[in-house]
Amino acid sequence: MLRKTSELNKCVDLAPEHGAGKMLHETLFAKTEFGIKCIHLCARMTLEPGASVGPHTHYNENEIYYIISGHGTVLDNGTRLEVGPGDSTLTLHGQTHDIENNGSGPLVFLAIVLGLD
Description:
Elements: E1 9-14, E2 22-27, E3 39-47, E4 52-57, E5 61-69, E6 72-76, E7 79-83, E8 88-91, E9 96-101, E10 107-115
Antiparallel strand pairs: 1-2, 2-3, 3-10, 4-9, 5-8, 5-10, 6-7, 6-9
């Protein structure tokens, strides 16, 4: 299945997870399109400079971030780390993370949430 960027479901999240600023949320594929229940989210996210997704804990799911472009920091279960293009993070059940754009341009990343049930 091909999904053109012009066909993506797009919305703007304000202060996601009690973070700062705005995040463009572009759903690549809806969870119902996979034919399995374990994929909860498959989306491209864009944070403008200074914007962030606030700290949050995942329960009964894991989340992957893959950084496409831009620079920022992530809270990786208590440790603040720098991220840039090509980097990826994995947040497991019971762990806490966030992401912040501290660069001069947009921070674009792929977010995939996998359910454990």
